[in-house]
Amino acid sequence: MADGSKAGVTYTTVDVAYFEQRALKRHARVWSLWALGVGAVISGHFSGWNLGIASGGWGGMFIAAVIIAIMYLGLTFSIAEMSPALPHTGAAYSFARTTMGPWGGFITGLCENVEYVITPAVVVSFIGSYMGSIFGTPPAFQPVYWIFGYILFVGLNIAGVELSFRVTLVVTLAALACLVAFWVSALPVANFSRWALNIGVGPDGTAVELPNGGGPFLPFGLSGALAALPFAVWLFLAIEQLPLAAEESVDPKTDMPKGIMAGMATLIVSAFMILWLNSSVANGAFGLSTSLEPLLDGFKAIYGDGLARLLAFVAVIGLIASFHTIIYAQGRQIYSLSRAGYFPRGLSVTHGGRKTPHVAMIAGAIVGLVIMLGIWFALGAEAGAAAIGGTLLNMAVFGAMLSYVMQALSFILMRRNMPHIERPYKSPFGVPGAVLTIVIALVTIYFQLSDPIYRNGVLGVALWFAAGLAYFAAIGRHKLVLSPEEEFAMSGGKAEYKSY
């Protein structure tokens, strides 16, 4: 036993067999990491972001996207420095554990856990909606799509890290190809002034459609742009999952920063291309502001409704890319907290031959499905679908914003208190970039809280935190394990990091 009395925790020293049962396999290189990051986010370029137009008009959504892109640049540059310096699969949890102790590590891990358990549930519900429209199945059939989706993609992730990354690369490239095809199709017919600026403000202060376009850049002023911040998050949400692959990366010290920055560059280009061109074709910003299928609507505006079912398949590819990659992240996030004893240790056992965290992935999938099915049967098909696509989505964003604050704070503390740690990569934004990330994340949370739907999501996250903290206070803090990241943290970053 090792004493952590200053933090009120107790450690258990385990033998090598413990880690042999929890071994991972190294496979990922730069392009695998790039695909993992881009694939996790790409569904947000197919749908979700556009709802921010209702809050700020096209100009407000553009400003919100710029602000959120700055936040993610500050975050990803910070992560790009911390990840090779602390190459643990725990990612956000291990960053905070090293700089803020066990309680800080657990709280950060809990914030991220909300995001990675809830986000795939929301994405698979979108997949189900598309599949229902393609095959003409009744709303009551939706849970079948969800269950089948989880079984298929959890199974692919369990099958092996090599297959998982191959599938990730293929579906990510396919999703990007779909977006590029739309950009090429939209360029010849795009009319920005006519369609993107077709929102005005009615006498009651609500949005009205301007038949000939030419409306104001900021119909709802700067406050509208700030209100659109939570929706702009969907253009980049989950790029921060990349460090979860640190112990499956062949050379995390060099490949991880390259993968993160290449992924971020790709997403910035894609985000602003889709914001510009999707809004610049028929129906325009006003139509997109309430659309659940903006990319599909854009394709229909160009090619007509005759290809609707084929185009719906195109949209599903982007959702599949994100669902598959976030299932990967969900498993590694639960695995890392379990291996160190923060979650029940049995969750971190890996598959004997394939070396994938199958127990963690199955457990995360079951929790996500139970939440979805509970809402579905409690509220009924129509209200349940709205709650899954609204309240749960907002829970994921809120959890993410809190984890960004903690990760940026970890970066600041590491820079200040641990200058001796080797840093193969250094953030060009430094501490000011991390501070800016914290400020923007807190502003985004403020505007989440100003929306009643978002407040319902926050209540859900509060219940999640209460349950997690109660477990850790009563049980988890007395069952911590001297895992690689824990030993590294307890040494103040002076011990050599051990990988099993």
TrEMBL record:
Localization terms from the record: Cell membrane
UniProt entry keywords in alphabetical sequence: Cell membrane, Membrane, Transmembrane, Transmembrane helix
Membrane topology qualifier: Multi-pass membrane protein
Signal peptide limits: none
GO cellular component: plasma membrane
Transmembrane segments: 31-52, 58-80, 143-160, 167-186, 217-239, 260-286, 306-329, 359-379, 385-406, 427-447, 453-474
One Gene Ontology term of the molecular function aspect: transmembrane transporter activity
InterPro entries for the chain: AA/rel_permease1 (IPR002293), APC_superfamily (IPR050367)
PANTHER family: AMINO ACID TRANSPORTER-RELATED, MEMBRANE PROTEIN
Protein name per the record: Amino acid permease-associated region
